[in-house]
């Protein structure tokens, strides 16, 4: 389904009066800030949508395809991301998971994506499950495996994913490994690290010069005793040993409980080794919940460090890092969920842009702990939704994407086009 420009214009017309009142109130509140500059940064900021988030996700216990109208192939997944991008003008990229989504005709897929204003973000390899007919198993790991032949299979898969990405105009590879061990004594940690490093080096050698490799870490699951890229320190070790094109990727759900993710982000940025981001939210572990649904203050504090750290290095907020959602769950319409996640990310980014850096630095220098907290919480507690909406309006999108999605009956149309019992490839 396509959303027409006049449908967006009509929707915006009905909300415009109220929106303008809220925006002018906000501009008065923040008269010392260059709001125009903030709005432009919001317009430029794009978050990639993963191809596996467009269908209802599964859990270890089951999968409920409650919505119907799920995309049946890569073309329909691109159509769904195009729908999101038409609604919010902030979802201008798609991230493919190979082999869940293998483009048969890359040129055609690329031009289909371009017709919706979409680019291809990082491509993701998958050595955490065996594919049908696969000669050797990843049951005991892939790049870390004790058997060289299994490692070779996993390396070749990653090189193949790079090739697929090149054909689509992608410029980065994300490697997330399920490798690790479930029981003490199962692995020689040092050998597992060395095998993994050697394997990653072979993949790294296949990267085009303009590509980045993102090494994603995860504390536990599916292995529960050790993970071979278990935390940001281990990821940074690999990235440093691999070379300039390798970076650490932070997935918000991949830490032990209560980890200080904002501090991790600050130090990785300081080292020039933060490459990309996977947004989601969690209460306990890798829950893959809607971004900002559980810990919006943490999301803001992370963005606060991102903005401060990127500005310190003169980095372009929109293009220097890979921004992507990585979430998937059972109980919401996936497109509504993604609209909510994007909105939460844009709000947190806007809040971070408005932090009074000069006053904060001064308060830090004076050890004025109370003032430091006040400065951060002042922006966090301000309602900045109208500048995020203004950025959308200027980019030709909807003032209220979720309402428009519902009012137009988008899910109903998708069910009409695709049927009730469709299941997207993926988790
Ligand atoms: Mn991830």
Describe the strand arrangement of the main beta sheet, using strand numbers: 6-7-9-11-12-13
Q: Helix count? A: 15
Structural class: alpha/beta
Total of domains: 1
**CATH architectural arrangement:** Alpha-Beta Barrel
- Major beta-sheet overview: 6 strands, parallel
What's the gyration radius in Å? 22 Å
According to CATH, the fold-level topology is TIM Barrel
Record the SSE blueprint.
Blueprint: H1 5-29, H2 35-44, E1 48-50, E2 58-59, E3 62-63, H3 74-88, E4 93-95, H4 106-115, E5 119-120, E6 123-124, H5 148-168, E7 172-176, E8 180-181, H6 189-205, E9 212-216, E10 226-227, H7 232-242, E11 246-251, H8 261-270, E12 274-279, H9 296-312, E13 322-325, H10 334-353, H11 357-365, H12 369-380, H13 385-394, H14 401-407, H15 410-418
Parallel strand pairs: 1-4, 4-5, 6-7, 7-9, 9-11, 11-12, 12-13
Antiparallel strand pairs: 2-3, 8-10
The site of manganese (II) ion (MN) has 5 residues, from loops.
Q: Any overview of this molecule?
A:
- The chain has 15 helices and 13 strands.
- By secondary structure, the protein is α/β, with parallel strands linked by helices.
- The protein has one domain: Divalent-metal-dependent TIM barrel enzymes (TIM Barrel, Alpha-Beta Barrel).
- The strands form four sheets. Strands 6-7-9-11-12-13 form a six-stranded parallel beta sheet. The chain has a three-stranded parallel beta sheet with strand order 1-4-5, with helices on one face.
- Strand 12, helix 9 and strand 13 form a beta-alpha-beta unit.
- Helix 5 packs parallel to helix 6.
- The chain starts with a helix and ends in a 9-residue tail after the last helix.
- The mean pLDDT is 96.
- It binds manganese (II) ion.
- The site of manganese (II) ion (MN) has 5 residues, from loops.
- It comes from Pedobacter insulae.
- InterPro entries: L-rhamnose_isomerase (IPR050337), Xyl_isomerase-like_sf (IPR036237).
